[in-house]
Specification:
seven-stranded mixed β-sheet; alpha/beta; 507 residues; three-stranded antiparallel β-sheet; single chain
Length: 507
């Protein structure tokens, strides 16, 4: 590309008589502006696109949003403060933000069949904090203040306020254990959630890797928590939310579900009936960027009786909302309401099941023997004598991007781990189906079975380093198979990567 020309100009000149793609034009134009104002940022964006197109993305919590969603996320709305919520702002001039937030919330309610939606949270962690504090305020703080004859917390004496605080922070949370597939925000002791509650956890059975509802019911009756939290970031099976709601009701617990990982499967009507969390939970939290295939962000769904409290995410824990992010969420929710998205969501699960079956056939230890959702877990310590860290790095060396993950009863802890988490949302977005799942399983087996650590591993401890060796011919073979696969399913095919790379010095 000539130094004086931009990406957009070069693209248009190369079309001859072909009709230009308007989305490609918008992306090239934005990169031209960034190249002028911040070459480092522009170059990093282009290199990230290169890396994502050239590496097979199997990270269960990542996806590829539409370019329309990305364009909605980068616009003039960034400049506007809009603390509060629709019709109740702390800043003037929020009419247009009200329209966008109301539209995003309406679409979210339509897609999920929810009574109320709050689309301001910046992430899933923020959404969980909003939900936790809304529940605590509605069920504990507000009644405690009323019992003191007050409505306004600001009017309480110091001593009375400390009494209310003690009551609020003495509540119990029962959630899935981190090592059984729960999330950091579900009461993990290194997370703020463990300071908000007295936290208890349920786990999976050692012999099956599954959650026992009978044991969960017994734990509920013993602990009697304020909140029963369901949901996961690394559990390969579906959950019966109808049964869990019934158990929560038995002990008067608020039933909360974190569906961040599987929201797209709910929106796409893969999880329905007893397995639809929105139909059964009092409060549901989620991200928008995993199986839902939207921008990075979070949201909360709830029953109408909780709406007043959820809407107070600001000032409870959030600062200024991100209007541009809410605009992108609205685009994503609209996309998730289409028949095409339902087909996509079904494809995610079909691919995950096919991939799990292929891995099992090749002798790889897949936890629970398969999957009901978008992810599977491979025990690389048992199967290959590797830590998750070694396996993750070796596969990345061959063009496969995924993440190591702790597994139940993991002997290697949360940093080295013994497992790999493998997800199908992104590769399903690219258009891959069952045949490609078999090829991916072959590549995983090829790499993992050829990693050498230089030392034998015992049952009690794995090598405490990420060091390993992988023969160059294995790297070449695996990398070539990944390249051929991705060449058939290019990311954002409307964009010309070679053209974009010409604008990046020292590639």
């Amino acid at each position: 590309m000539h130094a004086s020309s931009g990406l957009l100009t070069t693209y248009l000149q190369g079309l001859e008589r072909a009709k230009p793609d308007p989305t490609a034009c918008a992306i090239y134009a934005s990169l031209d502006v960034l190249t002028t104002h911040s070459p480092v940022v522009a170059a990093s964006i282009i290199r990230e696109f290169r890396d994502q197109r050239r590496n097979l993305k199997l990270i269960a919590s990542e996806n590829y949003s539409s370019l329309a969603t990305q364009l909605a996320h980068a616009n003039l709305l960034t400049d506007k403060y809009s603390e509060g919520y629709v019709g109740h702002r702390f800043y003037a001039g929020c009419d247009n933000i009200d329209a966008i937030e109301a539209e995003a919330a309406r679409l979210a309610c339509d897609v999920f069949g929810a009574e109320h939606a709050y689309v301001q949270p910046h992430s899933g962690a923020d959404a969980n904090l909003v939900a936790f504090l809304a529940i605590l305020n509605a069920k504990v703080q507000s009644p405690a203040i009323a019992a003191l004859g007050e409505k306004d917390v600001s009017r309480l004496s110091h001593a009375d306020w400390n009494g209310v605080r003690a009551a609020v922070h003495g509540q119990r949370l029962l959630a899935l254990d981190y090592y059984s597939g729960g999330h950091l925000t579900h009461g993990y002791r290194h997370n703020l959630s463990s300071h908000l509650f007295e936290c208890y956890h349920y786990g999976v059975e050692r012999d099956t890797g599954l959650i026992s509802l009978d044991k969960l019911r017994a734990a509920l009756r013993e602990i009697r928590p304020l909140v029963l939290l369901a949901g996961y970031s690394a559990y390969p099976r579906s959950l019966n939310f109808a049964a869990m709601r019934e158990m929560a009701d038995e002990v008067g617990a608020v039933f909360m579900v974190d569906m961040a990982h599987f929201a797209g499967l709910v929106a796409g009507k893969v999880f329905t009936g007893d397995f639809d969390p929105v139909a059964h939970a009092h409060v549901v939290t989620s991200t928008t960027h995993k199986t839902l295939r939207g921008p990075r962000g979070g949201f909360v769904l709830c029953k109408k009786e909780m709406a007043e409290w959820v809407n107070k995410g600001c000032p409870m824990v959030l600062g200024g909302p991100l209007p541009h992010a809410m605009a992108a969420k609205a685009v994503a929710f609209k996309e998730a309401s289409t028949p095409e998205f339902r087909t996509y969501a079904a494809g995610i699960v079909a691919n995950a099941r096919t991939l799990a079956e292929a891995c099992v056939r090749l002798g790889m230890p897949v936890l629970t023997g398969g999957t009901d959702n978008h992810l599977l877990l491979i025990d690389v310590f048992t199967g290959f004598g590797l830590t998750g860290r070694q396996a993750e790095n070796a596969l990345r060396q061959c063009g496969v991007t995924l993440n190591r993950n702790a597994i139940p009863f993991d002997p290697n802890g949360p940093w080295y781990t013994s497992g790999l988490r493998v997800g199908t949302p992104a590769i399903t977005t690219l258009g891959m189906t069952g045949a490609e799942m078999g090829e991916i399983a072959d590549v995983l087996k090829l790499v993992l079975s050829n990693v050498r650590t230089g030392e034998r591993t015992g049952e009690e401890a794995a090598p405490r380093s990420g060091k390993y060796t992988l023969a160059e011919n294995v790297v070449s073979q695996a990398s070539e198979r990944v390249r051929q696969l991705l060449d058939r399913f290019p990311l954002y095919p409307e964009l010309d990567l070679d053209l974009m790379l010409q604008a990046v010095p020292d590639q």
